[in-house]
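A quick aside before the break. I want you to see a complete sequence-to-structure record at least once, exactly as it would be stored in a machine-readable document. Don't worry about memorizing anything.
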Amino acid sequence: MVPEMPEPDRDADHTPDRTPDRAQARDTDVERRRKRALFLRELNEAKELRERVQPRRARVARLRQQMRMRTFRW
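That is the input. The structure line, written in tokens, reads:
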């Protein structure tokens, strides 16, 4: 007969240090929103720079986007 192995403690991973509390969750949400806002600002800045550097391509891209939006069905 094979001796029975003890079952591992399933609650060992759920220590109070590892469970995020509401304050920590809010902090991560605030941090995520801050990073997203920064990303969107930089993205808009890059688009404006592209329009200044390559106005013809930017205009054509804008017209293509408008055409896509006109033909898109909600």
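Two observations worth writing down. The CA atoms of residues 56 and 62 lie 10 Å apart. The chain has two helices and no strands. We'll return to this after the break.
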